[in-house]
Specification:
Radius of gyration: 18 Å
Structural class: mainly alpha
Strand content: under 5%
Distance between the termini: 26 Å
Helix content: 55-70%
Order of helices and strands: HHHHHHHHHH
Number of strands: 0
Length: 204
């Protein structure tokens, strides 16, 4: 299956793309036909960093995590096919800034040398920073002259949001982890979530 052609068919001409289980399932189905994945948007070293970050954000526990669900492959294809050139460049620039900060903090010279422990430390640095610091980075990132740390934070925050969205709309997660109704019935407004779904969010 030509996933590039299929994604263009789904996303072409729309101003806002919703990541649906069908889109995620399509990419995973196409990807499963090959033994080795070759990234489209990212370089191999960049894809390795992104994959490790996504695996740290959603690791495998009693349910599959980001890597097991092939979410890095999906994100790579989604960025390449759906994002416009400016958005693609913003992602690439943000990742470059993040890798640059990580190399400086760890005294390493190239992305392939960054360990999962190194990347976990960087995630903690940005995502576990106090609210005031995160607010400062967000404010700084509105300007073209934002410091590298602010641009790196923006990338990490964006990747976390993309990872969570892809995870929640993944076909396996939608059908086996979240509350799932393939044929929705009547809508009940004031129903206790525990009573309705056992506390699970709806997948659709």
């Amino acid at each position: 299956m030509d996933r590039r052609k299929a994604l263009r068919t789904i996303g072409f001409g729309t101003t806002a793309i919703t990541v649906t289980p069908a889109v995620v399932g399509l990419l995973q189905g196409c990807q499963s036909q090959t033994d080795a994945f070759t990234p489209i948007h990212f370089s191999k070293d960049e894809f390795s960093v992104v994959s490790q970050l996504m695996d740290l954000i959603i690791p495998t526990t009693d349910i599959p995590g980001a890597v097991a669900l092939k979410l890095p492959e999906f994100i790579d294809g989604f960025i390449d096919i759906i994002y416009n050139k400016k958005a693609q460049q913003n992602v690439s620039d943000g990742l470059g800034h993040f890798i640059g900060v990580s190399l400086e903090d760890t005294s390493k010279s190239k992305a392939s040398q960054l360990s999962k422990s190194d990347l976990d430390g960087q995630l903690a640095k940005f995502l576990k920073a106090d609210a005031d610091q995160q607010a400062t980075w967000k404010s700084q990132n509105k300007n073209a002259s934002a410091p590298v740390s602010a641009k790196a934070y923006a990338f990490v925050d964006q990747l976390r949001n993309m990872t969570i969205t892809a995870f929640k709309t993944n076909e396996y997660i939608a059908e086996n982890v979240l509350a799932y109704a393939p044929i929705p019935g009547e809508q009940k407004g004031c129903v206790d979530l525990m009573e309705a779904t056992g506390g699970k969010a709806w997948s659709l």
